Amino acid sequence: MTPPGPVGDRFRRFRERLAAEGGDRPPVGDDSPSTTSGAAATSGGDHPNDRGTAVSSSRGDLTARRSTEAGGRRGRRRGGGEELRVPEAEFTSYYGRPVLKGPVWKWDIAAYLFTGGLAAGSSLLAAGGQLTDRPALRRAGRVTALAAVSASAVFLVKDLGRPARFHHMLRVAKPTSPMSMGTWILTAYGPAAGLAAIAEAAGVLPRHGLLGLAGRALPPIGHAAGLLAAGTAPALATYTGVLLADTAVPSWHEAYPELPVIFAGSALASGAGVGLLAAPPAQAGPARRMAVAGAALELYGAHRVETRLGLLSEPYRLGRPGRLLRAGRLLTVGGVVGALLGRRSRVVGALSGTALLAASVLTRFGIFYGGVASARDPRYTVVPQRERAEARRTGMDLPADRAVPPAV
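Above: the chain sequence. Below: its structure as tokens.
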């Protein structure tokens, strides 16, 4: 029985329209006409059972046609058309904030990187002058090392906010923490460099009395302290590179093999610059050799970070970091060339030493600001993560020069 009322009338007209459409439409998916569809069209929907059969058939025809059309569309996309895909996500974040919280360090930490390397290179220079009996080279290296490590302490305390925090770091020694190891390296290096520099004052003390006794005791103490400072200098020169690579900053973390190499070369070059500035050409032989070794390490490491890291090399090539690093390379090359060609000229040696010192400053600041720039742009965080996720999903390894660094 047909339900009375407007709702029932609309439903009856809807069923009749479906039946009429099913009878008028040609059969889909078969060469021979459907018996059920033909019967439904002939009966005209007079019998309730026939009407239900017609409705079911028409619905089946609609479903088949839609499936065929959808399959044809999918086939056309597979055959050569462009598949629909989710649009690439924009590299934005909530409230315009970067994905990573950038380093809170300021320029004083970049200066700390330079002064630490200068202290290490100067101690190595002083040890070379001490072992080869070059007093001018030894004196310049020891005095510069003490001044540089004192400046490093000032910059570090300025960043920490309170001197007591440096003392608190000494309550524990954690080999897996570059910060903890750096604190202990500075603690071992600082007094040794100070004693070696104080020993240079033995020549101005009187020969008699207590001061004369101190003047006779200082040279052997300074000799041992200078060697101790030189022994800890390589760790002092490179631990800051490990410290930067231990952060989540993309361009620092990915460059974990190169940063210690760059910082070691920069330390050697800056120490050589001190020797070329302070010592006469006849005593500057160890400084020239240090300049060549330091420039080779620094240029090699800088080239690697600018070419090996793929997308993460961009911050070291673009903007202010790129300008600083390019200028540093030019000064490094110029300083080495001047040191080798101007062996007999004190003026050329002084200019070469100044160029090497300036190159070391520019290199440290370029590396520092390159990492800061990579933390500010979400692209340098998101794209490498997608590459690693895609490599894991497809079971493929990344190229050797884009290998994922070990977790820290």
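Residues 119 and 148 are 5 Å apart (CA to CA).
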